[in-house]
């Protein structure tokens, strides 16, 4: 480990918080619910429902929330792997004109998908078991016409080395690797085509802590080295806190809070964020039983049948009559943007209140 | 000192696969006292599940318990060695689900798909307790209520697939608790859940335990969960327990370099943003390719060359009760140990 890494010194790289790389405005992804042989549409799954945010060049933006809240769908919509049903998505390349992703034609979309790549949670199902690692990583190079023939092999070998795998492994198949190694292969595949934006969808969620720490370190090194911007989707808030500059919290298809990691964790302003933070196990038996823990009753809201008003109100300990009827809008409160009627009057518990 | 509920010594569970032997569990020692929560931690593949399944003798073939003792102090006062029982025999069946129950990460491992929740729980109750169908049904409703299942009477008629993940987990816990076991083995029951649901399920297990006085052997790879619920902790590496201590000692006075490495690699809330995590280099070796000497030596930052790669450390009991398998802590090494031994 390098001295810099050991001392925990953060190199900010070329981070410029002012330049947007992805701009998302009013994004909607609704899936129709159909019934019967006629496939009559009987409802909508509002997986993502009117969310707006900007990802700035050089930052790591975290996207968190319970399963089913729409994180993956949001990430996939940015690359149009799922078709948005509303809103606007703009990708701004470092050296070129902004691209309207929703109306992009074939060539433009191809360019977007080279610049913006995904790393998935489950490397087992995202790596084709019938292809040797060399082909898996080299596929994008070939498809995007970046390299051909022996050149591809050289680049793949470089990439393998860069993610900490031996270049001799190029002809091995995915099954011959451990979970952590497969995740490295997934990262190599994403980075081989020289992207500048990477969506890490639960990229470390399935890994053991020691391997998770290795992959997080790798992701951070690669970010500095290749000037990357990350959208880091995850549900482990402790991991998010380690790696993200800003955090966006989703609940039932909507953004409920977004802001700098430090301030969201110290002073959450949405009751849902408070509950999420409170639920994280604290790795010190000496703080057991200290401080009140917020527990969320009931289940995650059903996105095909959302509660009225604030979708969080049935589980919210601060809810009033107003919350049942009036939908709160995302608005600035302090350093954050929050969608709760009482964001400026509630005093909520952050991690500072029970830090070990 | 109280009589232990469960005493495991030298347990080995091996898989013979195509001429080679996978030593999934390779000499485990463990004690669970009545009413106590013991957490078993370690990275995936280190043998936690096979160790748990060995206790109930439900190791999948070709796996077999090949050595060691699993002494259970039965309610009757009798001590039985579960390792010596016929896995299909009457005695182990009278223990399974009755005195020792198990819950899993995937609830469908325990819940059958074709029977309603209600009939599964009432069947389990009637298998072990002499009660009428009606009484069993009432007890089923009671236990479902106890695990926080909303509208329990209606849920009796539900099939597992009709429930959400969190509710299915509760149904499985209800099934396991229906006969008031003295030991509950929980194999990563919250790993697949959201943190919010995990917190609720952990509270539930803790409350039920306090109320029923049962012991819990809780398997997890999450040290945060361990800190929240354990009384004592056993850390496993490659089929062996490498450190066993009270929970406070594990977190504040860990002796084994592996335990210390695990603790350094967990992300913690409240630490400065961007702080780099330490890691344990390398990865868990294949269980059929166990390194020589101390099996952790290739990844160990405190490895003593020429010794750790040759000598297999034995179990050492330290004055404060911690048990550790590490040459740094073996008696004749102690004069050279402290430099790296204390954090
Ligand atoms: N192709 C699809 N068709 C219908 N519903 C979908 C589809 N993809 C996702 N959903 C639904 O959208 C919601 C959000 O899912 P997802 O984005 O995967 O959530 P997350 O990643 O936060 O767990 C879920 O209710 C899911 O069932
Ligand atoms: N059916 C099986 N056949 C062969 N080996 C197995 C089988 N099941 C488990 N193993 C081996 O036993 C070891 C321990 O597995 P397990 O107890 O499931 O680990 P853990 O629960 O700690 O993740 C694994 O490394 C695996 O290789
Ligand atoms: S708007 Fe009301 S229900 Fe929603 S989070 Fe705020 S207080 Fe709770
Ligand atoms: Mg997802
Ligand atoms: Mg397991």
From TrEMBL, chain A:
Q: May I ask which residue range the UniProt record assigns to the signal sequence?
A: none
Which keywords does this chain's UniProt record carry?
ATP-binding, Nucleotide-binding, Transport
> Per UniProt, what is one GO molecular function of this protein?
ATP binding
- Name-wise, this protein is ABC transporter ATP-binding protein
Q: Which Pfam families match?
A: ABC_tran, oligo_HPY
State if Nucleotide-binding is listed as a keyword: yes
SMART domains membership? AAA
Q: Which CDD domains match?
A: ABC_NikE_OppD_transporters (cd03257)
TrEMBL record, chain B:
Q: Does the keyword Signal apply?
A: no
Location of this chain's protein in the cell: Cell inner membrane
- Gene Ontology terms for molecular function: ATP binding
- Topology versus the membrane: Peripheral membrane protein
User: Which UniProt key words apply to this protein?
Assistant: ATP-binding, Cell inner membrane, Cell membrane, Membrane, Nucleotide-binding, Translocase, Transport
Extract the CDD domains matched here: ABC_NikE_OppD_transporters
Q: Where is the ABC transporter domain?
A: 6-263
Q: A Pfam family matched by this chain, by name? A: ABC_tran
Q: Does Nucleotide-binding show up as a keyword for this record?
A: yes
Protein family per UniProt? Belongs to the ABC transporter superfamily.
- Which NCBIfam families does the protein's record reference? oligo_HPY
Q: Write the protein's name.
A: Dipeptide/oligopeptide/nickel ABC transporter ATP-binding protein
> Which organism does this record belong to?
Devosia nitrariae
